[in-house]
């Protein structure tokens, strides 16, 4: 689904991207994780836990980030575990659990990102991308599928067909009865093919470093009360070729 969104942006379907909003919001980890304490200690929090999916996807869609501004707060001083086997354990919260930030991209676009574990219910969607010629709704980057929607200027929302792209077919059932597309190991295959071809792989170290610096900038910006300029650089990963399965990587090599 996200490769389909990337293609729409690259083809200019929504024009020049001006802004957007991203949100990853829940009540936290203590209701389901068997040992959730580390989520609320230094190195934890929603930005460093689930943020990599969102920040990396934004870099894939829009390119590298120029600077970050953010405000962070701690919703509750303690958390009570309700999952087993530590039901009833009290966790002292030592990190911010609600973070609101703005990412300014080298392209000129700016995207707001909210990450929170302090919310009981909400109606936010993972991504809204706003362009000069339309808008794009992007599915949850924690998985590979979903149905993007696009609009041309003020027209109606139209579902985006992702069937021509690989890795969008649901392959993993969840406890709530839903089935999702979850192909996380596919990056290792791309790396293996890239090593043989002598080309950069998509989930590169430069990309990971850039995403990490962006995520750490949220905390720095909030603490220091200023914009934080991102010093690392990376290239947008090459889009994944059209196709049905992992053979797209080999097909791309043959075509080259």
Automatic annotation (TrEMBL):
Task: List the keywords (alphabetical).
Answer: Oxidoreductase
| Coiled-coil annotated spans | none
User: Which molecular function GO terms apply here?
Assistant: oxidoreductase activity
Xref: SUPFAM superfamilies: Glyceraldehyde-3-phosphate dehydrogenase-like, C-terminal domain (SSF55347)
Keyword Ribosomal protein annotated: no
Q: Which Pfam families match?
A: GFO_IDH_MocA_C3
Highest taxon of the lineage: Bacteria
Instruction: Quote the InterPro entries the UniProt record gives.
Output: Gfo/Idh/MocA_oxidrdct_glycsds, GFO_IDH_MocA-like_dom
Positions of the GFO/IDH/MocA-like oxidoreductase domain: 2-136
* PANTHER family hit by this protein: BCDNA.GH03377
Task: State the protein's name.
Answer: Oxidoreductase
Lineage summary:
Bacteria, Pseudomonadati, Pseudomonadota, Alphaproteobacteria, Rhodospirillales
